[in-house]
Amino acid sequence: MTNTPLSADVLVIGWGLAGLVAAGEALDAGRRVILVDQEPRTNLGGQAWWSFGGLFFIDSPEQRRMGIRDSLALATQDWFGTASFDRPEDHWPRRWAEAYLQFAAGEKRAWLRERGVGFFPVVGWAERGGYGALGPGNSVPRFHITWGTGPGVVAPFAAAVEQGEREGRITILPRHRVTALITTDGAVTGARGMVLESSAAARGVESSRHAIGDFEISAGATIVSSGGIGGNHDLVRAAWPASLGVPPEHMLTGVPAYVDGSMHAVSESAGARLINGDRMWHYVEGITNWDPVWPSHGIRILPGPSSLWLDATGKRLPVPLFPGFDTLGTLAHLRGTGYDHSWFVTSRQIVEKEFALSGSEQNPDLTGKDVGLLVKSRLAKGPTGPVQAFLDEGEDFIVENDLESLLEQMQRHPGGETLDIDHVRREVVARDLEMENEFTKDAQIGMLRSMRGYRGDKLIRTAAPHRLQDPAAGPLVAVKLHVLTRKSLGGINTDLDGRALGPDGEPIPGLYAAGEASGFGGGGMHGYRALEGTFLGGCLFSGRQAGRAAAR
User: Fold this and answer.
1) CA-CA distance, 232 to 92, in Å (whole number)?
2) What's the distance, CA 358 to chain centroid?
């Protein structure tokens, strides 16, 4: 089966958030658009639909109401201290970082509010750093949770595209897998590929790659917004940087299987320059999903600061590698231990207050915009329903009433044979001794006490300091943690219009890139590390830039 050739002013490859935004901008400019994706229509919105919906703003009304003083100057200091740009090819990533910071401090929030997007009033504090003022991390809370989580961010942009479809201005083609970009006299003039068999797979479920035909689409401009490589462990391992040691033999997957990186090679074959492929963002607080949707499905714990973090041998992680402080630094340290897992030792009271789970489906109160459920799950005693489900069903969770029983079960658990149980016992007892007066030499305890000075942390994110073995805080909980693949920080090198650049640094006529495929802009606007809340925002900004430029 070969489809009749199609044509449009703008072709968008990938219907994740960046692709939806880009398509919507082209529609607003009066262009005819074709939007293709290899997945069934159930996956419209891509990875963003599954996200927690965190967005990075600078000096927002929500921050000011929480008593947070933020500024573009402080955010710029944090961003560049975190990114650590150090390569000649970082010219455009730097420019994108500067432009994105202006967007986050300026029109971003109002632009989203015009589209009906709202935000939870308590601002979260992710990637806290713990180093000097010029080092990585957020100096102040900037993580704004969207009311409706990821689906709430996706909704207005999906609605705009679907309205355009009803009006006949955009054609949406599911099950169309691009295998090549068409070039004519040095310009990209469209794409060709395979039509895949129809699939009834639910959102996120791996779908067939059986081809039943071919297609070809010609377009004045083509935007690649196909995502990164996080669902393809072979590509992740091949790109793994030496600075992070040997890649893990065992990893969980934080994104659906369709995040396969296939368009990277296709774009490169058409002349696009790929940069910073060794910069990536994977989490170290991954837990095996007891109710998986895609292969090796893992969920990330978004931890508060109180749990005791131990490596696979039972040694406590060094300062400042506390929960929620430095994702990349913790990953680098743990890769140096020679093991693929680590442990939290904590209490039920800490789990109740400090364990949030990443993902729209793990937060039904916020995703469903259910105020009653929100109050019950976040402020009442006890963990949220999804966290309780992991306590009950999760293979990585151990719950015991006393320390000796916990240690015994940890040692029996797969991977527990490497633990020095005597050392783990000493770590727990030593931490508890430090809790017995208001003074301490323990940096983590000092940090968590100071964090409760922020209203947001005290209200919903940081438990009152207590001994892990305090019966009133029990039972004790141990959690085995895994590396969880997530984001590509490098990608297609682009200028500020989202135009794909060739090896000579010149734009390739007709080719644009947005979202994670472009390293969220420029080929890596985050540098080596991210401040969190910047991935969805990067999709929004780069999709907007590329869509507007492609429509000119």
Assistant:
1) 27
2) 9
